[in-house]
Write a structure and sequence with these properties.
Length: about 220
């Protein structure tokens, strides 16, 4: 399973590196979301600084929908999805590989957006360990949940509009937990940030287990 996961992740990342969809479309979209939030809210940088954690993760959430959609769009042409079914690859490995490819893309995007909120909003990412741990757990959770629901929607003609409707409500705990953890890390809140990191880790573990167990069925039905 792990060998198959590496093969699938490598395939998806090579396709993205050659097509540059993530760098030319997803990343500019996420940065534009940050800029528009800055224009829509009070120009007082104090307000933006306090809201920067939530705005950051809303931008990541929207970008994750695009990244997951792209991950499954590349399988629709030239019978690629049928090729996956007939390849003999472990379905759990396919799920983990596609999830890992999305995670890599989102982590690169989050580095860019983190620089953006520091420069645009004046955010102070003081507690680096909590920032990194929450970002890693939240990213894996978003990628795993998105891959599961993309598998559900893959065989439908309305998959482009159905995926956000399926994924965004389920991702609400990630948005909440990651925002609260980052607020603690930035000194905006005095809550227990590591409790939120644990919530994010549980969410990620649940969807990873669900995807490994159910992706074979989803792949056959898509």
């Amino acid at each position: 399973m792990w060998r198959d996961a590496l093969l699938v992740a490598g395939k998806d990342l090579r396709i993205e590196a050659r097509s540059r969809v993530a760098s030319n479309q997803v990343a500019p979209f996420a940065v534009l979301v940050l800029v528009l939030f800055g224009l829509a809210l009070d120009p007082d940088r104090g307000v933006l600084e306090r809201a920067s954690a939530g705005l950051f993760w809303v931008a990541v959430l929207f970008a994750s929908v695009l990244a997951v959609q792209r991950s499954f769009t590349i399988e629709t042409g030239d019978g690629a999805r049928d090729g996956l079914r007939l390849s003999g690859l472990d379905p759990g490995g396919i799920f983990l590989g596609k999830t890992a490819a999305v995670v890599v893309q989102l982590l690169a995007l989050e580095v860019l957006l983190a620089v953006g909120i520091v420069l645009l909003y004046g955010a102070d990412l003081g507690r680096a360990a909590m920032v990194a741990a929450s970002a890693a757990a939240a990213t894996v959770g978003l990628a795993a949940a998105g891959t599961v629901y993309a598998g559900v929607a893959a065989g439908l003609r309305v998959r482009e509009t159905l995926l956000p409707l399926l994924m965004l409500p389920v991702a609400a705990p990630v948005l909440l937990g990651a925002t609260r953890a980052w607020e603690v890390a930035m000194g905006v809140s005095v809550d227990d940030g590591w409790r939120w990191v644990q919530l994010l880790a549980v969410f990620a573990a649940v969807y990873l287990a669900l995807g490994v167990a159910a992706f074979g069925t989803l792949l056959e039905e898509s």
